[in-house]
Amino acid sequence: MNNDAPVEAVSGVSQDSKNLAILNWVGTLFLGFIPGLVLYLIKTDDAYIRDQSKEALNWSITSFIGFLIASALTFVGIGLLLYPIIGLCHLIFCILGAIGASKGDSFRVPWAIRLIK
After folding, report:
1. What is the DSSP letter of 12?
2. Which of 6, 29, 36, 105 lies 20 to 30 angstroms, CA to CA, from 93?
3. CA atoms within 13 A of residue 53's CA, in its CB half-sphere
4. Is the distance from CB of 50 to CB of 38 less than 8 angstroms?
5. pTM, full prediction
6. Cα 32–70–29 angle (5° rounding)?
7. Domain boundaries, the chain
């Protein structure tokens, strides 16, 4: 392997695509499904950004469903335990997604419901 080859040639993902994917995951951490939905609808020409925005969108929908279930279970007392667990999972998976995007990897959240294919 040639050590002088640029990173884009090795991974096949441009730096602009990586940067938008990183912003997508960081935006998902703070804004929920909005960044993933916007990039999924706008950036149809870039396969990597579309893939990562679809994954972030699937994860944000999954975490939203988890928060709804936790809200319903709050009356029983279990929901109070689920809120921090879901929040911590959201934080960890968004950080892992941003790290994977910075490397140009195709990050997959292990527990996400794949509603958007």
Report:
1. S
2. 6
3. 23
4. no
5. 0.83
6. 20
7. 12-103
